[in-house]
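seq/struct pair 1
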Amino acid sequence: MRLSDGHERDSLITRLSPLEKPCRFKPPQCVIPVSKKIRG
């Protein structure tokens, strides 16, 4: 059950804004890797 809690938290953060977290430091460079991750 502990694993589920962690997984749900990750989904929430990624669902909120997956490129806002990593993009906060490098928006132009994080947009490429983030888009690729969401695509596949």
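seq/struct pair 2
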Amino acid sequence: MAALTSTYSLVEQAKRIDPSGQQALIAEVLNRKTGMILTEAPWMPSNDVWTNKTTRRASLPTGSRRRLNQRISQSVSRTTEVMDVIEQLEDYCDVDAALVESMPSPAMFRAGEVDAFIEGLGQTMVSDMLYGDANVDPDSMHGLAARMGTLDGRFVITGGGAGSEVSSCYVVTWGQTSAYLIYPKN
């Protein structure tokens, strides 16, 4: 038997009908509209089916200062490979057809549920983009906090605070050669 929190019941149906017998308007107080990041970021197909290998510049040549008639030392750039697993985030709404049809406006009920599912999945994806850690949960993407978890002075800087009273701010340059989201090819 399914858990009470994962199926619709007559009690939930009663909450969605106002005293006049009409479909109640739901105050969407849980919506954060965090999904905007999902439309602002560029999306690229992965270069493998369920993973994506990215080659990232790790160091740059520094060059040499020289004087006339002196040789210079040679420098070289280095790269590193990053392997990302593509997160599969899914859900489905399972409501008894008789319950849907008994609502004052079945279409309004279904549209409201679609909106709730889109918002909920969007919030989960954005949370994983920021805080997901594939080392802790192999089914999750590797988010910004896991990738940029140490102060290195170049990509991660400190604002001088430490402890629970501080928060993070991520400034991302979106682009094909910088940061982008991936989806399975084909």
